[in-house]
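Need tokens for this chain, all 340 residues.
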Amino acid sequence: MKKQIKFGLLVGLSIPVLLVSACGDQLENTEKLDTTDKNIETVSAQVFAPHEGINQEPVPLEVERDGTDVFVKMTAQITDIQLDNDTLYKAWTFNGEAPGPVVVVNEGDTIHFTLDNMDPAVPHSMDFHAVHTAPNVGFANVMPHEEGTFVYQANSPGVFMYHCGTEPVLAHIANGMHGVIIVKPTDGYPTDNEVDKEFVIIQNEWYDYNDMGDMIEGEPNQVVFSTKALEPGQVNTNGTVGALIDTPLEAKVGDKIRFYINNIGPNEISSFHVIGTIMEDVYIDGHPANHQKGMQTVGLPASGGAVVEFVVKEPGEYKFVTHQFEHVEKGAAGKIIVTE
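Here are the structure tokens for all 340 residues:
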């Protein structure tokens, strides 16, 4: 039986003693919960002991709307993801996906967010970059086998990162607990009537499993692109090497394509570039006021987002990459197949 804990919009609410700030105090039971404890017995260097043998099936995102109130339910769970031919990663995930499922709301909506923590040993939380809230309230930890509900408003349009904000934050993000929330502007974008197809593109990197030393000092083993379905029937992938090469996006000659892009990081920047075209319209962080024209490359810091729009004028294969080509060699490439 899961314990349900609710949090409101008011900063002045008291915090139950079982919950801690997403960016605050450590839990007393560190012997059980500290994922960086070198004394924890593990079956192998690749497995955190309490997660041994766990491979929880992906869970569909739950979203319901009642006027401007949007009710979103997600899970925190442990799910195996095959990053490449040689790497099976026991990912810490939202809903069994890494990146997690895309969340789409409208400017002015009130988000009622519930996190069901299915992890048997580690507390998790949700940090939405798209909202205003006191982090110790709105991004508070949810303990294993419990649910927490949080309420906040989405008043600024854009393409935002979400991630687990539980300490150490780097470990939770790098192990897979990240995704994108899109807040659609009330008045849309000036180019809405010109766009033919929309896709979500996410960049992230992977390090040695649950290895804080490698996450802090090392270079990523894989840097990858994924896409999340905006509507039924669209391609939906995890952040795996070759995901958008093996399953390319599709378009027709003359289509104006819109990418909602986000660089999850957690550490590297992205120099996003579409080979064979120019990004005629770019909205930095996805805000309509940040409109730029005719860009060859869009710089995305870790967590940075953008809306980018371009036209494909001839049939063929159009690759998109980060122009840090060392990262392309590690997997950061996708492609669009354009036909007549």
